[in-house]
Amino acid sequence: MAIIRVEHLTHHYSPGTPFEKTAIDDVSLEIEEGELVGVIGHTGSGKSTLIQHLNGLLKPDSGKVYINNTDIFESKETLQKIRFQVGLVFQYPEYQLFEETVYKDIAFGPTNMGLNPLQIREAVERAVSAVEIPSSMLEKSPFELSGGQKRRVAIAGVIAMNPRVLILDEPTAGLDPKGRDTILALIQKYHQQEHNTVLLVSHSMEDVAKYATKVLVMNRSQLYAYEDVDSIFTRAAEIEKIGLSVPQITKVFHQLAELGYPVNSNTYRIQEASEQLLRLLKKKGEQEC
Amino acid sequence: MLKDISIGQFFPGKSIVHRLDPRIKILLVFGFIITLFIVRNLVSFGLIILFLTVTVFTAKIPVKTVLKSLKPILPLILFTAILNIFFIDGHVLFRWGWIRITEDGIRLAVLMIIRIVCLIIGASLLTYTTSPIALTDAIERLLSPLKKIHFPVHEMAMMMTIALRFIPTLIEETDKIMSAQKARGADLETGGLMKRAKALVPILIPLFVSAFRRAEELALAMECRCYRGGEGRTRMKQLKLTVSDWVIAVFVTAFYIVGILMNLWIPALF
Predict the structure, then answer these.
(1) What is the pLDDT of residue A18?
(2) For A161-186, how does the pLDDT look when each residue is reduced to its tens digit (9 = 90+)?
């Protein structure tokens, strides 16, 4: 059963003024429970607008959003409940930290849910272990932490609500390569442990190829594709045409295949790539012997 | 949402009104306001309204936008009008219990409404047709005689420029933080006064933190480019008065004077 169902969603910014702009145009889509979806597209392609509809922060001009078969704009109460079921981590989430201690900040979401103190403690501890923050940090002020640590605390603040759908808008923006890998690995681990649905907005095809199970491509306010990672890169030429890059590895393997080498042109993970290359080199070595 | 607030919104354009030297524009707006409060006869008001209409159309500012700038002061207009209608002595037209309406009251009310509306439209025309940068630049130049008494004119102008520059940025930031906290279940819309005030804490603290961070970054960036205040600083775009600036200045001033002089010959509205 689809956990997220979007039907003919359309949204305009500043309607009725000369600055009117269509942000998303007639988007329909279904996302199954348990997927890790990579959301990709240019700046201004509508991906941020789309994800802000999924927990009702933005109201569509037309169209419907269903989470777990409930229309989220049915009533105010449903909307408030949906906010806890669909956790949304914004870009640069560390700028939303405000409490005196890390613990209190992570507890903000669960407190708003109306949990009792015991449940809150439990929720915070689970979130903290998910993002691997040492518990010695809990009593510190969030403003004392380093950039990467702040980001993890902010993500924990959303995870603590134990959402069924977790959406992250470019969680690695502005981090160094090591920080990126750590955060993405944490998200993947969290996804595998909780078996919930994760949407990961990213600019990097490499990251999407490495971590996601499905890819959602937005282009010019419209849904361009929503498919398995395996099948999306067979359309590499098309994807490059709309101005998005495919992973470097895929590019190399496409060219190798064109040159007549017996490789799978649809390779996008380093692991598979190195296996194929080794096999190829070995074969060549045997021939030369 | 918050984005739709227009504070001194600038409408880029290339009309005569846009190209007029900002110093002249500021002085003419001052002259306009003074004229508005001296003039008290119908013909002059007719001329002033005609003048405003012509300016709005030459500047190609949408009439809707001009009217929108009046919206926030609507309560003020109504308040003055009511005050004038009911509390001015004079020839009584209507009486019901302690409520009475006088002829003079109505006249004064109409006069005040015309004045306030023209004042707001005139002043907002200045901000609609002048970019904030040009505006502060002009203020700096107009106030430069004050340097003689060691008034920090340049610093004042720089502060104004920066403040204006950061209004949209901070509004956007507030929007973002509000969304982020709403996503964590913050309830900003319901509850009593105390609860709502408390609900603002998760928004105000990150906003302050980010404002300070931005200020620090900006200060650093300015110092990296050797900013040391106004002394010895030259400009890329020098304000220069052209012949057409002078012509417009003289013409409009003459128009104001004619409007004021009409007070002498035409009976006053009040």
Answers:
(1) 66
(2) 999 999 999 999 888 888 889 999 99
Contacts of A81 (CB under 8 A, 6+ apart): none
- Tell me: do B67 and B121 sit in the same domain: yes
> In order of start, what are the domains of chain A with their CATH numbers?
2-246 (3.40.50.300), 247-289 (no CATH)
pLDDT tens, B86-98?
777 777 777 777 7
In a domain, B245, yes or no: yes
Question: Does residue B189 lie within any of the structural domains?
Answer: yes
Average pLDDT over residues B233-243: 84
Q: Establish if A158 touches chain B: CB-CB under 8 angstroms.
A: yes
Higher-confidence position of B37 and A283: B37
Rounded to a whole number, what is the distance in Å from the CA of A112 to chain B's nearest CA? 6
B186 CB near a chain A CB, below 8 Å? yes
Among B176, B177, B184, most A C-beta atoms within 10 A, so best to mutate, is: B184
pLDDT band, very low/low/confident/very high, at B85 (cuts 50, 70, 90)? confident
Does residue B214 belong to the interface with chain A, where contact is any CB pair within 8 Å? no
Distance from CA of B140 to the nearest CA of A (A): 32
Digit-coded pLDDT (tens) for A70-129: 888 888 888 888 889 999 999 998 888 999 999 999 999 999 998 999 999 999 999 999
Q: How far apart are CA A52 and CA A13, in angstroms?
A: 13
B244 and B220 housed in the same domain: no
Pair type for strands A21-32 and A2-13: antiparallel
Q: Has residue A198 got a pLDDT over 90?
A: yes
Minimal CA separation from B164 to chain A, in Å: 21
Tell whether A141 lies on the interface with B, counting CB pairs under 8 A. Answer: no
Same domain, B165 and B213: yes
Domain span holding position B180:
154-224
Contact A93 B180 (CB under 8 A): yes
> Same structural domain for residues B189 and B220?
yes
CB contact under 8 A, B180 and A97: no
User: Which of the four pLDDT bands, split at 50, 70 and 90, describes residue B33?
Assistant: very high
Mutation target vs B (from A54, A78, A98, A170; most B CBs, 10 A cutoff): A98
* Residue B191 to chain A, least CA–CA distance (Å): 14
Both tokens of B244, joined, read 């057409």
Using the Cβ of B2 and the Cβ atoms of chain A, whether some distance falls under 8 Å is answered with no
Considering the domain architecture, whether residues B76 and B30 belong to the same structural domain is answered as yes
**Long-range pairs of A25-28 with CB within 8 A, sequence gap ≥ 24:** A25/A221, A25/A222, A26/A63, A26/A222, A27/A63, A27/A222, A27/A223, A28/A63, A28/A223
Alpha-carbon span B133 to B74, nearest angstrom: 29
Q: Is the Cβ pair A112, B186 closer than 8 Å?
A: yes
CB atoms within 10 A of CB B38: 11
The answer to the question of residue B17 being in a domain is: yes
Structural domain count, chain B? 2
Chain B CB within 8 Å of residue A56 CB: no
